[in-house]
Amino acid sequence: MGLAVAGALSTTLVPFTASPAWAQDCVASARAPSLSHTQLANRRNFQVREAVVCLINAQRAQQGLPALTYNQNLTSAAHEHASASVEQKWWGPGKDPHTNPQTGSTPQSRIQGAGYCPNPVSWRFAEIAYTGWGGQGTPDAAVNWWMNSPPHRANILDPGLREIGRWAQPGAADPAGTDASGAGTYVVTFGSCQQ
User: Fold this and answer.
1) Rounded distance between C-alpha atoms, residue 72 and residue 142, angstroms
2) E-assigned strand segments in the chain
3) Would you say 82 and 186 are in contact if contact means Cβ atoms under 8 Å apart?
4) Are the C-beta atoms of 110 and 18 separated by less than 8 Å?
5) Which of 113, 117, 134 is closest to 184 using CA atoms?
């Protein structure tokens, strides 16, 4: 069984439920077996990213919250961070997965650098990140972990956040998962912008 790493937090995975009436398709695709790195990169990455959004919005709907809407700039920030994380592999116990040690980039600098909410009257943002392997590199495992981690759950269920960007990158961001099968790294960015 693989290890799931997201910041310095650790928690026991407890299955969550999504209402079959409106979330059955996203749950089914999120539990699909992981493909190889090349297959995920070439054929399934879009489907995997959409499964993450679907599962997050399913959790919000269960709490009576509106669905998050897609934002390309937030996705660009998530893509940049997930790709760098897998390439550099700095995540792990005691490491901050949200600050790139080579560039010093933070969620705020990446989101602003991607062009989200220029010249705002007010704005908010958040980022959640996850890496897993050996059966724990799926969208379902990522959202399950986040929902069982109070700070990550709070971001997902924050009624003040309205937009979402997401990226799923094949491979692990933690050096412990370097050669493991079924590895996936997920970065989700959230925002709310008033201009």
Assistant:
1) 21
2) 69-70, 122-132, 163-170, 184-194
3) yes
4) no
5) 134
Instruction: Give the CB-side neighbour count of residue 76, counting CA atoms within 13 A.
Output: 12
User: pLDDT category, 135, cuts 50, 70, 90?
Assistant: confident
Closest CA to 105 of 187, 177, 3, 5: 187
pLDDT for position 126? 98
Q: Name the helix (H) or strand (E) containing 86.
A: helix 72-88
Which domains occur in the chain, in start order? 20-194 (3.40.33.10)
Length of the chain in residues, anyone? 195
What are the CA-CA distances from residue 45 to residues 29, 99, 120, 159, 177 (Å)? 12, 24, 32, 28, 19
pLDDT, tens digit, for every residue of 56-113?
Answer: 999 999 999 999 999 999 999 999 999 999 999 999 999 999 999 999 999 999 999 9
Smallest CA-to-CA distance from 76 within 35, 133, 117, 42 is with 117
Average pLDDT over the chain reads 84
DSSP letter, residue 43: I
Neighbouring residues of 162: CB distance < 8 A, sequence distance ≥ 6: 66, 68, 69, 191, 192
